[in-house]
Amino acid sequence: MHNYKNLKVWQVSMELAEELYRLSAELPNDERFGLISQMRRSVVSIASNIAEGTGRGTDKDFARFLNIALGSAFELETQVLLSTRLGYLKESQQEVLGRVIQVQRMLHNLIQKFQDKA
User: Fold this and answer.
1) Model confidence pTM above 0.90
2) What share of the chain is helix, strand, coil (3-state, %, to 5)?
């Protein structure tokens, strides 16, 4: 069992969630039930699956939840890219994409660590 609050990837994903919530509040209201909702679900899923995985009994289970979190991070990347293409994100706001990619790399590295153990 791992303490998810001590995991750097969980901490960074929580910072990403806060940043994304603030950023998505600036998107057009007509996207409230579309893109905004999807982006928020994806970003919350990242941190949530990391936390849930730590409560599982085995490293294999933990790695499975990390993979789910990674999938959510790729969903979020796509949603941020679409927001950019639609002109919803200003250039200064696009730094969130770098944070998404950082989380993806961190998750990938952690998954590799647990897969190498198996």
Assistant:
1) yes
2) 80, 0, 20
* Long-range CB contacts for residues 76-85, cutoff 8 Å, separation at least 24: 76/20, 76/39, 76/42, 76/43, 76/46, 76/100, 77/101, 77/104, 79/35, 79/38, 79/39, 79/42, 80/39, 82/35, 83/27, 83/35, 83/39
- 80 CB neighbour count, 10 Å cutoff: 26
How far the first Cα of the chain sits from its last, in Å, is 16
Geometric angle at alpha carbon 113, from 107 and 114, rounded to 5°? 95
One-letter amino acid at 54 equals: T
pLDDT, one tens digit per residue, over 49-90 is: 999 999 987 888 999 999 999 999 999 999 999 999 999 987
